[in-house]
Amino acid sequence: MRGAPLSSSAQAAQEVHPPKAGVPPGDTLRIGIKRKTHRRDDVRAAQADAEFTAVRQRALERSGYLCVDCGYKSLPTSNKGAGAGAGTGKVGSSLQVHHVNDDHADNREENLAAKSALCHAYHHVGCDAAGPDGCGGWSSRMRVAYAPELSAADLNLLQLAVGVAMDAGGAQKAAAQAIYTHLMHLTRPVSEAWGTSEAKNFAAALERLTATQYEHRRVGDLRLVFHPDLLKSQAENWHKDYSMLTPPAWPSLTK
Q1: Cα–Cα dist 57/49, whole Å
Q2: Whole-prediction pTM value?
Q3: pLDDT tens per residue, range 91-111
């Protein structure tokens, strides 16, 4: 497949990359897309969304306000500026809730999983339109990287820290920018192999797979690198969730 444009063949999405040592066997984040009926095409969308709104908070409570993938914790606070209930006086959390089986009308307890925005994005790499509790508009601002030495969840936490440090200034900002530059270098092998590293192009290839092919897609070594603007927007949530853990305080955590 080396040198072949991804747009020329959906088979690129089935490339085999065996798991590497050091990657947690429980890492379940795989690049994927929404393949079932979209809300915009579903006549039941309004009813399903109303049902979802009624159970969303309970799903977050059951998770302990922890992302099931990376473990990011976002406790609810009154009138929080991000997440459900923002500006309404209700409790809110920056976590999102994902429908595990890709059916937004299936709001059973076991089908709802709390996710950080970065982890949730792995399930919707083709989404470039805003939608309820999802990562709308992100597809054009994500790149695919080859990073088997890091789990997707750990890389998401690293990128979140990068986003926070980018606003810190001084040496921490410089270090964050250096890390981000290295992460972008990790997209080069993907571009060389498939002719692109843009997430939206991978999404287009995944769309052309059969249901069986998609279920068995082998993209375990591929990761998402998010645009700095997306990371900075998530850093805003960090500052709300961890106001005492600003970058200047980070060195003390290692002592």
Answers
A1: 13
A2: 0.81
A3: 589 999 999 988 888 889 999
- List the one residue out of 127, 143, 146, 132 whose CA is nearest residue 97: 132
Q: In one letter, which amino acid is 69? A: D
User: Averaging pLDDT over each range in 42-46, 61-65, 92-96, which range is the top one?
Assistant: 61-65
CB 118 within 8 A of CB 98: no
Task: Check if the beta carbon of residue 67 is closer than 8 Å to that of residue 56.
Answer: no
Q: Shortest CA distance to 211 belongs to which of 33, 20, 28, 1?
A: 33
CB of 77 within 8 A of CB of 110?
A: no
Long-range contacts of 125-129 (CB under 8 A, 24+ apart): 125/31, 125/32, 125/33, 125/199, 125/200, 125/202, 125/203, 125/206, 125/224, 126/33, 126/34, 126/199, 126/200, 126/203, 126/204, 126/206, 126/207, 127/33, 127/34, 128/200, 129/40
Residues 135, 238: Cα–Cα separation, whole Å: 17
